[in-house]
Amino acid sequence: MSFNYQVYNPNSPDVVLGSSIWSSAGHALLATALFRCWHILIFFGAWSTAICVISHNVHSLALQPTLITVFGTVLGFVISYRTTSSFERYNEGRRLWSQIVLGSRTFARTVWLHVPDNTYPSAQTLSDHQEEYKARTLIEKKSVINLLEAFAIAVKHYLRGEDGIYYEDLYHLVKFLPVYALPPTIPSAVDLNRTSMNDDVPASPRSEHFHGSGHTRRAPAPGQLPFPTVAPTPSLRVANFAREKMLLSDGRPQKGVKLSTGSDDIRLAPAMNPPKYSLLDVFPFSLLVGVLAKDGVNKNGDAVKGRRAARRRAVMRNHRGQHSYNIPLEISLYLGSYVSALQSRKVVDAPTTTVLLATITQLVDALTGLERILTTPIPFSYCIHLWLVTVVYCLALPFQLWSTLKWVTIPATVVASFIFFGFLVAGEEIENPFGYDKNDLNMDHFVRNIIRKELRAIMAMPTPDPSVWAFSSENDLLFASSDTEERVSPLDWVQRGIPKMRDALKLQ
What value, to the nearest 5°, has the Cα angle with vertex 149 and ends 146 and 155? Predict the structure, then answer.
């Protein structure tokens, strides 16, 4: 029992045309709290039925309804606080993604408009090579703005527990960058179980995932971007899939683009790869996920199927026995290296450098905040106590309702259970808003429809020259107070002189 679950995309043609109403209705049902607590409702329906039958045919089990008012009010406040806490995490995640969008816009605008066309000062006097160095500068600017898009894409995959760079939307943007051997920020099950504090930083990934470890890195030429000063690593991110022929996220082969790099075949995973629902997502089989594996994989290292197991892998990294590298943080280091190169060349002023560095800090701050949301769950004791109190309250509910409602106690108990447990499971659903569910943040929309399109729109035009666009003949409402007055072009105003302009300003 498994079926595809697609991501809701407001720009999708299927949504506009309504070609699959039943599929959309099914996806909407899976996103509701009813899908996650239906078995609880069945249990309390059977429980209330048993209490009513015994009370009607054997002996009345009715109790005074005083506890309903007292405990119900307290429980309602506590559950409301639980749901509010989860929504704050959801809202914080959305705010941090807005911060990434803002940082991308600011950095791209500053680079494209405020960095000069030639950033090689030593070549300023060499007229023979002016065009070459301008072309080099343009390539640098285009590459660093591409890294802004790569940063957002890498954050998206990073939060979903999709390790590495081998994705259709990410690989070509970062494959040429030398590798930083950064430790994983999001812990794995092995990390959490460690008691020794003397573990070394993970080695370079060349041993399992990269080849060409014997390559030596050349020193950067004067005026070029500096290379990272880390342990020896291959000069390029070239994959070796001898041990892992294709990427797996939920136990199934991923559909994607297959490339050829030398003698190795690289299979790129799709940009969006939502896990399928399976039997392991349906009660009582969902209880087996924790038994099969703690981090979403079984003892053989294969990924456990289902959405619930995929969520575990997103929080507990290294599900393929590999080190998890913080790709977004790596990209931020290369963004910083570009600003460092501009500083060393002395081609930008201090305010421009300050804006660029502040924007990089803003991006890293957003990444750190998103990591905090992902790795800081609601305290276990608080969740368990809240569930136990809610269960006890709903178990006692039929005893207190029988004397007043009689057989209506059964539907009343089911409805009350749905209200309380619905809020609980809804809070658990939105406290980690980085997956593929309908309730999660649409990170693919942020990356593809906002950041990518805006960055490409910025780079589609050269730096606008105000001496051109400000003096366009269509700019004929400069000093007019309404569109019915005389239309005068900027060049005509120049001919009339400044006094005429000031007189027109007074009449506005």
Answer: 140
Run of H or E residues at 264: strand 264-268
- β-partners of residue 210 are 239
Omega before 284 cis (within 30°)?
yes
pLDDT at 267: 81
Q: Mean pLDDT throughout 120-124?
A: 69
Alpha-helical segments (H) within 280-405: 288-292, 307-315, 327-345, 350-375, 380-405
CA 15 to chain centre: 22
Determine the distance from the C-alpha atom of residue 454 to the mean position of all C-alpha atoms in its chain, rounded to a whole number: 18
Per-residue pLDDT tens digits for 76-95: 888 888 888 888 999 999 99
Q: Distance between terminal CA atoms of the chain?
A: 72
Handedness of CA 414, 420, 423, 425 (dihedral sign): negative
Structure tokens at 261: 């790099």
Q: Is the pLDDT of residue 201 over 60?
A: no
- Can the peptide bond before residue 490 be classed as cis, meaning omega within 30 degrees of 0? no
**Cα–Cα distance, 325 to 320 (Å, whole number):** 13
CB 247 within 8 A of CB 164: yes
Looking at the chain, the whole-number percentage of residues with pLDDT higher than 70 is 66
Give CA angle at 373 (317, 148), nearest 5°.
80
| Three-state secondary structure readout of 79-126 | HHHHHHHHHHHHHHHHHHHHHHHHHHHHHHHHHHHHCCCCCCHHHCCC
3-state class (DSSP) for residue 268 = strand
- Beta carbons of 157 and 262 less than 8 angstroms apart: no
Q: In one letter, which amino acid is 376?
A: T
Report which DSSP code applies to 501.
H
What's the rounded Cα separation, in Å, for the pair 296 and 484? 69
Rounded to whole angstroms, how far apart are CA atoms 172 and 150? Answer: 9
Query: What single string gives the DSSP state of each residue in 383-423?
Result: HHHHHHHHHHHHHHHHHHHHHHHGGGHHHHHHHHHHHHHHH
- The CA distances from residue 28 to 5, 23, 41, 241, 443, in Å, are 10, 9, 19, 38, 19
pLDDT digit string (tens) for 344-403? 999 999 999 999 999 999 999 999 999 999 888 888 888 888 999 999 999 989 998 888
Strand-pairing partners, residue 317, are: 188
On whether the CB atoms of residues 337 and 343 are closer than 8 A, the answer is no
Q: What's the token pair of residue 95?
A: 């705010």
